[in-house]
TrEMBL record, chain A:
It is an enzyme of class 2 (transferase). Keywords: Metal-binding, Repeat, Transferase, Ubl conjugation pathway, Zinc, Zinc-finger. This is RBR-type E3 ubiquitin transferase. It catalyses: [E2 ubiquitin-conjugating enzyme]-S-ubiquitinyl-L-cysteine + [acceptor protein]-L-lysine = [E2 ubiquitin-conjugating enzyme]-L-cysteine + [acceptor protein]-N(6)-ubiquitinyl-L-lysine. Transmembrane segments: none annotated. Gene3D superfamilies: 1.20.120.1750, Zinc/RING finger domain, C3HC4 (zinc finger) (3.30.40.10). It comes from Durusdinium trenchii. InterPro entries: E3_UB_ligase_RBR (IPR031127), IBR_dom (IPR002867), TRIAD_supradom (IPR044066), Znf_C3HC4_RING-type (IPR018957), Znf_RING (IPR001841), Znf_RING/FYVE/PHD (IPR013083), Znf_RING_CS (IPR017907). Residues 125-338, 129-176 form the RING-type domain. Residues 1-39 are annotated as: Disordered. Pfam families: IBR (PF01485), IBR_1 (PF22191), zf-C3HC4 (PF00097). It comes from the Eukaryota. Its EC number is 2.3.2.31. Residues 12-22 have a biased composition (Acidic residues).
TrEMBL record, chain B:
Coiled coil: none annotated. Belongs to the ubiquitin-conjugating enzyme family. This is Sumo-conjugating enzyme ubc9 (Ubiquitin carrier protein 9). Residues 4-162 form the UBC core domain.
Amino acid sequence: MDGSDGGSIAGDSEEFEYEDQDVELKSGGEEDEDQMVIEPPEVRKAPYTIMNAGDLANRQNKCISEASDLLQVTHEEGFVLLRQHGWDLLRLQEAWFDNDQKVRNRCGLSTAKCTSPAPSSNLAGPKVCSICMSAIDDLVALDCSHGFCEECWRGYLHTQVDDGKSAVQTRCPQHKCPMVVPTAFFSRFCDVERQKKYQDWCLRTYVDENASVKWCPNPVGCQFACEYQGVESLEIHCQCTFVWCWACGEEAHMPASCKTVNQWNVKNSAESENISWIRAHTKKCPKCHKPIEKNQGCNHMVCSKAGGCGHEFCWLCLGDWASHGTSTGGYYQCNIYDKQSKQGKHAEEERSRQEAKHALDIYMFYFERFMDHDKGMKLTVIQEQDIEGKVQRLHDEHGFAIIELQFLYDALRQVRACRRVLKWTYVYGYYLDDSNEKPLFEYLQKNLEEKTDCLHEMLEKDFDKIFFDQDNQLSSGSEEAHQKFMTFRSHATNFTNVTQKFLTQILTDLGSDTGLGQRFSQSST
Amino acid sequence: MASFASKRLAQERAAFKKDHPFGFYAKYAPNEDGKGQNVFKWNCGIPGRAKGPWEGATYALTMEFTEDYPSKPPKCKFAHVHGKPLFHPNVYPSGTVCLSILNEDEDWKPAITIRQILLGIQDLLDNPNAASPAQEEPYRMFSTDKTEYLRRVKKQVSEVALGAQNV
């Protein structure tokens, strides 16, 4: 992956001062001479490699060539051996030089383990294919010399491919014969479509059976794979823009740990159905806070005496039904709530409700915010296309250089990175005890959330208001337009910078249980 | 024109007739309407191996083939004994035999002959595979109380010997 576009906006940013001078930055980066260099949101100097199908094929070939050189076996044998050893050349090498015959036997590259007798080829008379049992002169066999006619080979290999990707492990059709059928046989006997399938599976084995290569788990679908030598959590920035965790294969979830994320996902899948139903169909009794389902048409609710408190209230305003007399405008014209809440009548009730917060409330509190940030994060992907159009318009109408508009992308990507981290801070927060850490955590979270929102709004609303307001069109190329643009850019760049600092800070401070925060701050400052 | 599967089955039948292990039988089942034979359904018999717990009777088993044969294995099913399945850890309550060479996702190969299948099942009778249980009671007994297991097997062997298997 190329890692060169790191400092494209560094020069611009030097003219600007931070707006938030009171931002207290952790003094983590003293060695860092140039404090003003803005790193793009993604970590650039990655210890891993992102690969597309072509890269994978090259990598796989290189790996096979190395093995066949080293062990002095054919390319085909190298492929089989590596596959059986999880594409780990060291492991294969060790086993091979310990006892190569044993490895050959185990991997189906020798006839030694074959308990099926070789056909009696020295007998006079025609040879017989053991699948169709017809006498045929030209039999095709692997090294084990179990011969089959071409038609039966074709049928056998077609069935294997049609049965799925285990076709790459196809063995000789003879009973108990472990010989692996080489790729060349598939090319020889399969039609083009099946050959393509087979070759695709061969390539996929490089990822599927390899502990150091994984497919990008983007739920939208992604063709890229990632190679990394390690097992710990690490944020992988895929070229499809999805960021995921190497260890657990979920979306990148700092500052929460893999374990916490797993716990959260289990909880979500167990509760989500119940919760969405409860949310859609019930309100809480204002007195005892039990969820109540409205199962009749009128708004006069009676909290079930059996399970609840028997309280009578209005479905619309949740006020006491006793106050819904004709004096207030009739039972079904419910305009009482405003008056009451203004008079503070609900305040006490509200407070006691807050105090009596049910576990479900707490969960939903975190869950809703988790989902909000998730939604916001996904929106930025759509907005990025949107911005592309706007960049073109600004370029056409006002003559700004495309390169000068790069800051918009950087800002948006910064928002995306922040939203993702914010999303997971709510998971982190949900499982955080009311310890000393909580106030600090909430403070950091608040800061990041606030700044992220500002930046997001700036990109969504301010930007449009300045440049794409129908009523107040800027004349193209004017001094005013230029001025406004410079101001906006200065603002946006500053905010991008500031949110980046907050992001780094929250991850550094909270990341101690995962070790992720440490790594993040090292690679991004 | 006869299908690939039926040709192979005809070859199998001929080969079995010419030479088969002692005590075994394998032949086409009669059609349900009583007219002619069904090439895709075979009635077979597997004798219990000498000196093994199943010695003393021959166990009736049906083999059902599909047009995909020999790409796909036949389904092998023991006949019930007094309405009960064969008392064996790897025989499903339906009578179907659970054996790796009879599973297309495991060790089935198109070159496996009917003779090899029958010998494989005979071997399975004496050597149950505790790793893939198919029937609860015999499995539990086989793994906890061998004496009781053998007693139950013996009981079934004598029932079969007296003609209790309804083919």
